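step=encode ok
step=design start
structure_in=
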């Protein structure tokens, strides 16, 4: 892993130190040998195989954006698909986890509902790999900004109840008639406040490259480095969101700071033209950055997701195991 960042990439954000810890253990003889006996007389787990990276794949609920009910009343369940439906779907694909985007939960979601989703995922063998919110921290001080911060803190609380270790966040957008520098300052202040609160709940916040003041790696990293160092703050690597001359090169710039990674199957360049993503190249970028967290498929292409998602899941499995 490249360690030239000021930000500590800790295990609490995405278990990035797991394999490193095993390496140290092996070096001290704790897991050395193919069947070394433990001090209790029981066979130790063989070192061979422990250092092999395990494919860990998740699916973002946003992949079902067209069919999932949004902000519904918990007392009047909708007729269409809901988060529990999506959890069942992820299990049917044999995935390791599911990303449960906040948009599709009931309004003022109860702890009971969150616990039920957590229990459902657990019993199906799924990790809840994270959630995501649609915040805007570039607003001026006042009721609108306060509402954004209140929503963010509420979803930090919700994530803790849900067992979701990370929340994808946005920076926001430049308000009409204002400058990017003003938006930058507000954004840094808002993220700093949110991260401080998230730390008290054991939740990571991951800032996404999402256009606007995070449209380039330089803009994104400027914000990232301006937020005080915290093990509870990182970057959400979204493979399809850079619309630059060389999006792959730009993804490589942010990959070392990623605590969460979402993969899209399409890419855009500066001219706005859409093309199929070079998925092996994206996987290679993450591997080169020593990323060990979940890879979350976020499907947004036009092809029917019922046909496309299973196919991409299988492709990703093969690439991650290669």
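sequence_out=
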């Amino acid at each position: 892993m490249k360690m030239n960042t000021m930000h500590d990439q800790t295990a609490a954000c995405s278990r990035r130190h797991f394999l490193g810890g095993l390496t140290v253990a092996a070096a001290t003889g704790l897991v050395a040998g193919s069947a070394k006996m433990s001090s209790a007389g029981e066979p130790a787990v063989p070192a061979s195989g422990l250092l092999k990276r395990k494919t860990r794949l998740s699916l973002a609920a946003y992949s079902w954006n067209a069919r999932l009910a949004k902000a519904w009343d918990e007392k009047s369940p909708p007729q269409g698909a809901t988060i529990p439906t999506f959890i069942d779907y992820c299990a049917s694909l044999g995935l390791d986890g599911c990303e449960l985007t906040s948009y599709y939960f009931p309004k003022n979601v109860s702890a009971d509902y969150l616990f039920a989703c957590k229990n459902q995922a657990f019993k199906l063998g799924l990790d809840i790999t994270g959630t995501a919110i649609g915040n805007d921290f570039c607003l001026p001080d006042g009721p609108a900004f306060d509402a954004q911060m209140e929503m963010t803190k509420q979803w930090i609380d919700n994530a803790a109840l849900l067992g979701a270790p990370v929340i994808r966040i946005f920076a926001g957008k430049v308000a009409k008639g204002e400058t990017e520098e003003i938006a930058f300052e507000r954004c840094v202040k808002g993220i700093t406040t949110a991260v401080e609160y998230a730390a008290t709940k054991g939740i990571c916040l991951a800032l996404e490259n999402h256009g606007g003041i995070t449209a380039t790696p330089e803009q994104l990293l400027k914000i990232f480095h301006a937020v005080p160092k915290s093990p509870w703050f990182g970057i959400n690597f979204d493979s399809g969101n850079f619309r630059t001359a060389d999006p792959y090169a730009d993804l490589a710039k942010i990959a070392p700071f990623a605590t969460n990674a979402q993969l899209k199957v399409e890419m855009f360049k500066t001219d706005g033209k859409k093309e199929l993503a070079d998925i092996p190249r994206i996987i290679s970028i993450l591997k080169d950055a020593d990323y060990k967290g979940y890879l979350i498929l976020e499907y947004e292409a036009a092809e029917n997701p019922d046909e496309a998602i299973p196919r991409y899941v299988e492709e990703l499995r093969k690439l991650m195991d290669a």
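step=design ok
step=annotate ok -> The chain has one domain: 55-321.
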